[in-house]
Write a structure and sequence with these properties.
117 residues; mainly alpha
C-alpha cells in the first residue's frame, strides 16, 4: 500500500470490503450463492458448522448490503431462496483468488492450525 506524507497508509478499500463480508461466514455464504439461487436449507447444509440463527442473521446483513436478494414465494409449505445481486457478484469475483490460494496452501496450513470455531 502507498503511504501518505504523514506516515499513514492510504485507503485501499479493504475496510469497506471487510465491513460487508467480514466474519467467518459471509464469504462462504457468498461463495455458495455464486452459481445461482439457493434455498435456506441448501445453504445450511453447504456452510458446515453454522447455526440456523447465525445463518439467518448473516443472510439479512448481506441483503441489507445489497449483496443478495431474498425471494419469498408466499406459498405453503414456505419456499424462500437467495440470489446474488450483480453488485454481490462483483465481490464474489474477488474471492476467487483467495479460494485458489487456500487450495494451493491447504497442506501447509491445515496441519498447523484448525479453522476458527
Amino acid at each position: 500500500m502507498e503511504n501518505t506524507d504523514d506516515g499513514n497508509e492510504a485507503e485501499c478499500g479493504l475496510e469497506v470490503a471487510l465491513m460487508v463480508m467480514g466474519g467467518k461466514w459471509k464469504a462462504l455464504i457468498l461463495y455458495h450463492l455464486r452459481s445461482g439461487p439457493r434455498r435456506f436449507s441448501d445453504l445450511k447444509r453447504l456452510v458446515t458448522g453454522i447455526s440456523e440463527k447465525v445463518l439467518v442473521q448473516q443472510l439479512r446483513e448481506l441483503a441489507v448490503s445489497d449483496m443478495l436478494v431474498r425471494h419469498d414465494y408466499h406459498q405453503v409449505p414456505p419456499k424462500v431462496d437467495y440470489t446474488m445481486t450483480p453488485f454481490g457478484l462483483t465481490l464474489v469475483e474477488t474471492l476467487r483468488p483467495l479460494c485458489e490460494w487456500g487450495v494451493e496452501h491447504r497442506a501447509r496450513i491445515t496441519p498447523h492450525q484448525r479453522p476458527p470455531a
